[in-house]
Amino acid sequence: MLIESGDIDCLRMATICYRENKLIQHPSELNDNELYRISYLSGKQLFMNIFDEVPLKRAGDKWQHKKLLETIETYADHFEYKDPGIHIQRDLVMATMKDFRKLRINYLKDSPLKKDKELNIKTDYYPVEVLRYAPLNQTDLQLIYKLPSLLVRISQLYYIEQLRYLLATNIQSYSV
């Protein structure tokens, strides 16, 4: 978010503000480093795209889950029912998404990435027409998420240094 001189990267900030909640138009726009929101979900839940881990499905493929209505035959029918104002192209490949989980910060243990791989996190398919960009990408969000922890640690180190200085200047050593 900063450029090499230490100033704020205004172009990057403008890009982030411009693309927030922008709809995805085509599967080629999907990226492993970005975060996405689902247009009909009201929560702040974020999703990340997964490539090459599961077989691809198209929006025109047969709906394989419990049907809410008899008119739902394909994935596209289901998502058009969920968000009536949207038209889904049935020939496009759907995005394979999983929940984006914030890092658990514990600097004394191994990397949290190992734990995520061990967990069997459920993946879902979404047509690209229901996806929107989240305000930040994965890297930026993780940096912002780590910031409070780092600030707390820096303030702790500052207080420890003050205590060390007070003890060093106020305790008189006695020789035996």
Shape: elongated
The count of β-strands is 5
Q: What's the mean pLDDT score? A: 79
As residue ranges, the low-confidence spans are none
N-to-C SSE string, H for helix and E for strand: HEEHEHEEH
- Multimerization status: single chain
What is the CATH first-level class name of the domain at 19-137?
Mainly Beta
Give the biggest beta sheet: 3 strands, antiparallel
Task: Report the CATH architecture of the domain at 19-137.
Answer: Beta Complex
What is the count of DSSP helices, taking H or I runs of 4+ residues?
A: 4
Summarize the structure.
The chain has helices spanning 10-19, 75-82, 112-118, 138-170; strands at residues 36-38, 47-49, 95-99, 123-126, 131-133. The protein has 176 residues and is of the alpha+beta class.
What does this protein look like?
This protein is of the alpha+beta class and 176 residues long. It has a domain at 19-137: Beta Complex (paz domain), CATH 2.170.260. 33% of the residues lie in helices and 10% in strands. It is built from four helices and five strands. The strands form two sheets. It has a three-stranded antiparallel β-sheet with strand order 2-3-4, with no helix packed on it. It has a two-stranded antiparallel ribbon with strand order 1-5. The longest helix has 33 residues, at 138-170. The protein is elongated. The chain starts with 9 loop residues before the first helix and ends in a 6-residue tail after the last helix. The mean pLDDT is 79.
Q: What are its keywords?
A:
5 strands, elongated, alpha+beta, paz domain, single chain, two-stranded antiparallel sheet, 176 residues, 4 helices, three-stranded antiparallel β-sheet
